[in-house]
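From the shared-data thread, chain only:
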Amino acid sequence: MMANGTFDLGTLVNDGLQDRSVSDWLWMVFAVMLVCNLGVLCFSRTKRPASPMLHRLAITILSTTSIAYHYTASNFGQTPPLAPSSFDFIVYNIQYVRYIQWIVNAPLLVIALFLRTGLPLSDVVLPSVMAEASVLLGLAGTFAADHYKWAYFIMSCAALFNVFGHLLSKTLRDSFPTPTGLSRWEFVVSVLSLAFIWTLYPTVWALSEGWNLISTADAVASYGIVDLLAGPVFLAYVLRARRHTHVGSVTLLSDDKV
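Structure, as tokens:
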């Protein structure tokens, strides 16, 4: 990849090592997100997808992530920490644009799990709100002083576990296959896949913003990998898994079913 001049403008890598490869990595993730977004967009315009709303959700998620990575790769969307840290060997700028991306995308990914399932629409509300709460608490912990940040981290993880506890409990309460033909196994695999990916976020947070054990370059690379899993990889799986479901008489936008 061609070298770029982003690091001449600021301090994206702010632990004393202005590594140009970090900027190149951010631009590469942006390019992957953009290409995947254009691919889904072209497919939805040239074909008649079985789940047009699911494709629109995928386009929205990938567009949001593309914009966030373009902003980050351009060395914007960050601010110095407001509270002093007891870890002096690595100091992180807070990349708040990343959290804006997650605030937008988290509830949309939860909704994507429910689309074309025929499950009650009311079951989407609580996990969507808890997903946003988890991101907001993580952001609050990033700005907080060291002796407060772990309280926010615990609350963020609790909100995240509430999301998947609620979703997995549905596999015990509800009857399967769903009205659209989705099997119990397909729904469980979708939930567990997203749960595994989202659990990686607090893990990276604890090692970077939490304990400051990894460099900024490692943190940026790790977040990029997880975003690729939560974006193109997971969305490709959901789009493929739901293409065989049949809507039939189920109204996708009613107050009862999704």
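Residues 139 and 168 are 26 Å apart (CA to CA).
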